[in-house]
Amino acid sequence: MKKNIAVIGGDGIGVEITAEAIKVLNKIAVKYNHEFEFAHVLMGGVAIDETGVPLPEETVKICKASDAVLLGAVGGPKWDTGSDGKPLQGHLRPEAGLLGIRAALGLFANIRPVKLFDVLADSCVLKNPGKIDLIIVRELIGGAYFGKRETYKDESGARAAYDTMLYRDWEIERIAEIAFKLAQKRSGRVCSVDKANVLDSSRLWREVVWEVYNREKYKGVTLSDMLVDNCAMQLVRDPSQFDIIVTENLFGDILSDEASVLTGSLGMLPSASLAGICTDSRTESVIGMYEPCHGSAPDIAGQDKANPLAMILSAAMMLRLSFDMDKEALDVENAVERVLAKGLRTGDIYRGYDGTKIVGCAEMGAAVTGEI
Ligand code: NAD
Predict the structure, then answer these.
(1) What is the CATH number of domain 1-113+268-372?
(2) What is the pLDDT of residue 99?
C-alpha cells in the first residue's frame, strides 16, 4: 500500500523523535511491502523563524493532501517573546500552529491510549495498578472550549464571565461512532462519561450515544454510562475496569491528564487526533494527526536524551487508525515492549534497577527498529 505522510518535526525534541519514528516506519514498509512517502513541512517556532508565521499555508496544503500527519512538538522559550521583549500575542505563538492545523483538518476526535507496560509497573503512581490499558476518546472541537463566552460587568458592577457548553446531536454522533468502531478493534467495552444528573448538554450526550449504539448494532460492543465525578475517582481506584472512555471536550481534557500519570512518564504517551476512523468496511483514506502528548522539552533538546517511544507509538496508531494496518501496528507495539523488557531505558523512565541501562533517543529508536 502506498501512503503519503506529512511530517511536522517542529521544535526542540520534536525533530529528534520524529526522525526515530520515520526509521521505524521505513522498516515496516520494507517488511510488509508498503511505500511510505514523507513530506517534511514547517510549523511552530521553526516556521516563525523561516516564514514569519507559525502555520504557513503551504503546510496546511501539504497536510490536507496527505494520508496522515506525524507531529513531533512545537514551542519553546525562544518564541515566548517578540523582538521587543514583550510576550508574543497568542496568534503569533508556535502553539497557534497546533490549534490552526487541528481546525484546518477538522480533527474532532482525540484518542489517548493509556497503557502501563508490565516492565514499567514500578513507574506507576499507584501501589497495585493491575492491568492498565485504556483509551480516552475525547471530543476535540466542541463544548465549552468553543461555545459562546463573555467577560463583562453586570448591572450591579460585579465582574462576571460565562462559557457555554453547547453540543449538537451530530457532534455527539460522530464521536460516539469513533468510540464504538475503536471498541470493535479491542475488547469492546465503551463507557460514556457525562454529568447527566446536572447538565442539559450531558443529558443530550447520553441520549445520542445510546441512539447511535442501538441504531448501528456494533457487534461485540457493550455500552455503559458513568458520571464524570465518579469516573475521576474510579480512574485512580481501579483503572483496569476501563477499556474505552468516550466523553466531551472539557471532561476529556481533565480525565486524560489524570489518566496520563498512570503510565509513569510523558515520554510514553502517544495520541491521535482524527477526522474519522478507517475500518475494514471503509476504504477511503481518513486523515489523522499523530503526536506524543508531551511538548518540545527545551530542557533536553539537542542532547539525544528524549524518549522517542511516545512518538513511535503514535506512528503505530497511525498505521492502525488511518491505514487499517493492524498487523503492522502490533508489530511496532510489540517491538517497543521487547526493547523495554531487554532493559533499555531513556532517562525519564530509568529508575536504576539491575538489568536496565540508560540509552539515548537514537539508540532507543534503533533498538525498536531492530526488533521489527
Ligand atoms: P514538555 O512536555 O515539553 O516537558 C515537560 C517535562 O517532561 C520536561 O522536563 C521534559 O524534559 C520532559 N519530557 C517531555 N517529553 C519528554 C520525552 N519524550 N522524553 C524525556 N523527557 C520528556 O512541557 P513544557 O516544558 O511545559 O513545554 C515546553 C514547550 O512545549 C512549551 O513551549 C509548550 O508550549 C510546548 N508544548 C507543545 C505541545 C505540542 O506541540 N503538542 C504540547 C505541550 C507543550
Answers:
(1) 3.40.718.10
(2) 82
